[in-house]
Structures are given as structure tokens and as C-alpha cells.
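seq as requested:
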Amino acid sequence: AARLVRNEARRTAYRDQVKLWEAERDQASLERRRPAWNKPKLGKLEAPLPRPMLNDPEASEEGRSDEEDADENDSDKSDDNANLSDLLLLVLAQVTVDQ
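C-alpha cells:
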């Protein structure tokens, strides 16, 4: 709630500055000159706090890394088997061509 109050105070101050700038801009337009200062910018507002997590992120990362490592090892083995079978087929093809 305090963040919303601070953001609203910032917006109110910004609106006041813009009103002053618009008066300066209009006066400069009548005098056929450029305004003495640039239009004010609102800037960044305070962002809300991140939502709390139900699980401890460190514990869940450790559990995931063990499962991911196991999955990667399984996929590496199947890749190795596929590479070996391809190599075996090439060798057999070469042997049959030589004979």
C-alpha cells in the first residue's frame, strides 16, 4: 500500500510539472520562440514486490539437476548406440565391397 501512495505522489508531482510546462510552452508559442525547458518525464514507478514462491527454489533446482543429469545420460547412451550401429553398418558395407 505504501508503494501505491509513493507512486501516486510521483504522478501528482509529474502532473503539476506538466501543467507548468504547458503554460511555458503556450507562452513560448505566442512569442514565436522555443520553450525554455523540455517537457518533464514521469520516470520509473516502483514495481510491486515479486510473489512469494511455494517451494524453496534452491531445493527444487537440486532435484531437477539430478533428474536432468539422469535424462542426459540416458540420451547420451542412446546416441552412442546409434553412432555405433552406423559405424558397424559402414564397416560391414566396406567388407562386402572388398570381397
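The radius of gyration is 34 Å.
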